[in-house]
Amino acid sequence: MLDMPFTIAEDVIAHYRNDGFVRLPGLLDAEELAHYGAEITRLTLALNTQVKPLEERETYDRAFLQVMNLWRSSEEARRFVFGKRLAGVAAQLLGVKAVRLYHDQSLYKEPSGGITPAHADQYYWPLATDRAITAWIPLQPVPLEMGPLEFYAGSHRSEIGRDLPISDESEARITADMEAQGFPIDRAAYALGDVSFHGGWTFHRAGPNRSRKPRSVMTMIYIDADMTVAEPVNRMQQSDLAQWLPGLQPGDLAASPLNPLLL
Questions:
Q1: What DSSP state is assigned to residue 75?
Q2: What is the pLDDT of residues 178-190, one digit of tens each?
Q3: If you write DSSP's letter for every residue of 139-199 in order, what string do you get?
Q4: How far, CA to CA in Å, does 263 sit from each of 5, 90, 129?
């Protein structure tokens, strides 16, 4: 099923473009996802370098354990990340013919893990356009108590807060700004097989994990196959340029060996 095409209805595409995100129930087969999820979780725990207990960490590090580019560590993970079904959905939502991988990222929110502060992903990305999208794929059901991803509907049209990294400040300022501008928060539980997609400038957050089980999630960031590199505007974008677009310069096609064409 990972490579089976899936055609998005026009009203779903319209919803994504209006709200900046969309949830697609049952997009992946639950049994197949459980198989790949076990390998992704295994790799995340094996490769994670965080050793401090939760109570000694800063807000960002209490949110989750994270490991990037698992596709380079395991053939099973590579099969999952390179799946054409999700890449095809991403291309349809972006309105482009093909997409490349920017990078994958495993997000493992431990039991009692803290909030993921409000932010927009593209703050971190030295990309020339907004044709970038993240697939958020829970590897087990995520009820509200486990901290599913929440979106500020329509917030991709706001430029307030785009200069903030994930932090206590971003949580406070963006939450206040979203409320002042009338962008409602949208939260929902995820069943196994549900996948959401959100744009690079869509503001989002997640609550704490109040359950006794970990919340294991895999994400893939897709970019327009014709995306070019932008001049970094902050320290984090400079770091991303070196790490995820190695050897490239502003104006180059975002197509390093780490950014394979997926569709």
A1: H
A2: 999 999 999 999 9
A3: SS-B-GGG--EEEETTGGG--TTTT--SSHHHHHHHHHHHHHHT--EE---B-TT-EEEEE
A4: 11, 10, 19
